[in-house]
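#structure-requests
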Amino acid sequence: MRTDRRRYQADEQVLLTVEAYDREFQPLAEEAVPGGVLRAQLVLPETGVGQTGNQQPLSIPLLRKGVFETHFPVFAAASIACGCAIRLRSRMPKYRSA
C-alpha cells in the first residue's frame, strides 16, 4: 500500500495504490474480491485538542490483476500513513506493503 506522496496540502488529491496477493503470493484476481473492490477506512486527522479523527469508508477498485487504486481529496494539510488488512471469502491472504 502506498500513496503518491507523503505530505499534502488542502484541496489536493491523494492517489492510493494497493498491491494485493493471495496465499501463494500470486496477484489477487477480481473473482477473489467481492465486487472487485477493497473496502477500507479512511481515518481523518484530529479536529482539535483531545479529539480523535473521524473514520470514513473508502472503496478501492481493481485497476488490474493484483493492483487496486483510488483517489480521495485532502481537506487540510496532512501527512498520510497507510495500513491494510484484507479478508477474502473466509480466509486471510498475505499481502505485501510497499
